[in-house]
User: Which sequence fits this backbone?
């Protein structure tokens, strides 16, 4: 029996299209209205001409652009290297905290103390303590570069956060999975490696990426130690031009840098939702 | 138009795969119809389409004479009139039995807590679950959970109850208690459409049996006729397999 689309179904699809068009129209109108209100609101502020001159000057932005971009390259390198180290260290810490058995007691305590300490300390304090304290030791072999010390501080703080995210993921895998793995003769380590971790990591990818986005912008904090990153470069340019536009420019560049990561996070989360919802509502 | 629920040429596809290829079915008020057929024959999909959990690709479904597949129809409004019970119970694990049952009456139908709880306890008592009212689902056996799920569906006073293989996830000795509940509902005059693999039960409780094969109703009739003298070769083959497996 061959199937031909019925008149009723065509009518139905026409109605659906109509309502989709209406939704698009409503979205467009409300966007225009909101944008107009914002525009008029800002423009009508009495100080707007001066603010525009000192924060949004195209000529200053143009002059500062090469230096700020150079600085941003340092941020990019710091964040990429830090991300790799943080993920590895965070995972190790998380595993250390989930180890059972009396032999691992000291390891467990250390890992717990580490996460407690560095999750509680403000990043800026760790940066200052490390950046000013370590060179003060005058020990041979320890790095004195502000970039390396700044990156180390970021790693210390963020690996504590990431460790907790991983741990939550590991603990969210149902105990029956571990039991099933062990029943097949897999060792504790093998069960963790082949059964628990793959499921745990998949579950925590969205919050993990969220932490990495946060790290990307916090890489700007190394400027407090004097590293010439995008923030520091902007500060120098601001002082030179007696105009705040370089700050806005640096901010814009950071946002542009994190947008791909944010979109990727959304995409991963949406895909996981979709997979979990098979069997749910359409 | 006497049928409570009526399906005409209902079609549902997932991408290229046709799951329902033009289903016609009428369920009169107080009638119990059992859908039988192999896994993948479209029984569950059919129930999900009726509850508007799936959007059909053609055809029409009417409830009480009203077209519920019109895109302008509020799906929530339709679902308030239809109860559905799933194979996997789907109780909310963070709520007690009583909370599971009173959620919809209170939040959707605007009943007071005392009124909803009074009725919920009444239903629980009727199905032998009175002492489980404050227990959480993970403390119950599968059969108890499924009975709670049925009570939850009943608490909103649906015109129609859809049951999707409600005993498939249960141990054999727990099946009986759930089937007992369904039988009691039939005696109350509840209109039910149930997908099932329990042939003996279907034969016993249903007014009419529908054999689904390849997304169409291949054969439909009174249990006595369909089970003893199936007209279609596919039906005979299906029933033979069930008999061979010792299930009928």
Assistant:
């Amino acid at each position: 029996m061959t199937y031909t689309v019925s008149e009723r179904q065509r009518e139905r699809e026409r109605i659906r299209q109509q309502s989709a068009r209406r939704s698009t129209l409503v979205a467009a109108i409300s966007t225009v209205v909101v944008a107009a209100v914002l525009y008029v609101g800002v423009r009508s502020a009495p100080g707007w001409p001066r603010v525009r001159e000192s924060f949004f000057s195209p000529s200053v932005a143009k002059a500062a652009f090469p230096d700020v971009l150079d600085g941003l390259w340092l941020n990019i390198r710091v964040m990429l290297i830090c991300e790799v180290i943080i993920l590895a260290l965070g995972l190790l810490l998380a595993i250390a905290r989930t180890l059972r058995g009396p032999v691992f007691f000291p390891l467990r305590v250390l890992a717990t103390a580490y996460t407690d300490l560095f999750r509680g300390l403000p990043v800026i304090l760790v940066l200052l303590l490390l950046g000013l304290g370590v060179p003060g030791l005058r020990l041979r072999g320890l790095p004195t570069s502000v970039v390396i010390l700044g990156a180390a501080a970021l790693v210390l703080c963020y690996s504590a956060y990431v460790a907790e995210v991983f741990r939550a993921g590991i603990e969210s895998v149902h105990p029956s999975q571990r039991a099933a793995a062990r029943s097949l003769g897999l060792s504790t380590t093998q069960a963790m490696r082949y059964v628990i971790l793959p499921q745990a990591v998949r579950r925590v990818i969205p919050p993990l990426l969220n932490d990495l986005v946060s790290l990307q912008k916090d890489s700007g904090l190394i400027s407090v130690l004097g590293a010439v990153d995008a923030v520091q470069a902007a500060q120098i340019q601001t002082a030179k031009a007696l105009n705040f536009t370089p700050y806005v420019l640096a901010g814009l560049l950071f946002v542009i840098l994190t947008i791909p990561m944010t979109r990727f996070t959304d995409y991963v989360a949406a895909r996981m939702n979709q997979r979990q919802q098979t069997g749910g509502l359409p | 138009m006497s049928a409570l629920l009526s399906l005409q040429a209902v079609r549902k596809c997932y991408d290229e795969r046709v799951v329902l290829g033009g289903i016609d079915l009428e369920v009169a008020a107080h009638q119990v119809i059992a859908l039988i057929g192999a896994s993948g024959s479209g029984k569950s999909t059919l129930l999900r389409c009726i509850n508007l959990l799936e959007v059909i690709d053609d055809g029409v479904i009417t409830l009480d004479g009203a077209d519920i597949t019109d895109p302008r129809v509020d799906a929530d409004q339709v679902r308030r009139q239809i109860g559905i019970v799933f194979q996997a119970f789907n109780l909310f694990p963070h709520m007690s039995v009583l909370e599971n049952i009173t959620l919809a009456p209170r939040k959707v139908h605007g009943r007071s807590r005392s009124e909803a709880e009074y009725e919920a306890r009444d239903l629980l008592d009727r199905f032998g679950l009175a002492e489980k009212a404050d227990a959480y689902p993970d403390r119950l056996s599968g059969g108890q959970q499924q009975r709670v799920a049925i009570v939850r569906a009943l608490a909103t006073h649906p015109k129609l109850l859809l049951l999707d293989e409600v005993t498939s996830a249960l141990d054999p000795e727990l099946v009986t208690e759930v089937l007992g509940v369904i039988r009691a509902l039939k005696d109350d005059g509840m209109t039910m459409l149930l997908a099932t693999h329990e042939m003996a039960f279907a034969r016993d409780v249903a007014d009419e049996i529908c054999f689904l094969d390849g997304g169409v109703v291949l054969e439909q009739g009174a249990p006595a006729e369909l089970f003893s003298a199936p007209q279609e070769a596919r039906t005979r083959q299906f029933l033979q397999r069930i008999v061979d497996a010792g299930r009928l």
User: Anything to note?
Assistant: Strands of chain B lie at 3-14, 17-28, 32-36, 58-63, 66-67, 82-85, 160-164, 191-195, 208-213, 216-221. Chain B touches chain A through 16 residues (CB under 8 Å). Chain B has a mean pLDDT of 91.
